[in-house]
Specification:
Length: 144
């Protein structure tokens, strides 16, 4: 069965179909996560975004762009943040080699002063399974 699984992966890669699609009811991202021999590479356009200065109660929207620079499909498994003040979103579908995508982050100011928040993005990538992204800026008192 294992040999069949890897033959399926190699065949599917050549025809631009997600090599982890299956009729077994197994989520493709779970198969991609355990197939460490076929991990890909990720390249981030920016890993730090400075949203500047906002007022208390306002939000800042950011997009972190990345590209699959490897030879196999790229899956985003999970994103963790260092606080509840940041909401994130990632592509639900895997990216083929050469494709680009975005991690979006919405920071809502909850306290005054300098902000330096981290996002941790977990992927099936050789160079690092966990990418660290930073959101920073300054929150000033709201205008009355």
């Amino acid at each position: 069965m294992l040999a069949s699984f890897f033959c399926l992966i190699l065949f599917a890669c050549s025809n631009n179909r997600n090599p982890y699609e299956n009729s077994l009811g197994i989520e493709p991202k779970h198969l991609a996560e355990i197939d460490t021999a076929h991990y890909t590479l990720i390249k981030w356009k920016d890993t730090v975004i400075d949203f500047g200065t906002i007022h208390a109660g306002d939000s800042a929207n950011m997009k972190f762009e990345f590209t699959n620079v490897g030879k196999t499909w790229l899956f985003v498994f999970n994103i963790r943040t260092t606080c509840g003040c940041t909401i994130t979103d990632a592509p639900k579908d895997p990216l083929q080699p050469g494709q680009s995508g975005f991690i979006t982050a919405i920071f809502t100011s909850t306290q005054l002063g300098e902000v330096n928040k981290k996002l941790f993005v977990f992927t099936n990538t050789k160079n690092s399974r966990k990418s660290s992204l930073t959101v920073r800026g300054v929150v000033e008192p709201a205008n009355k």
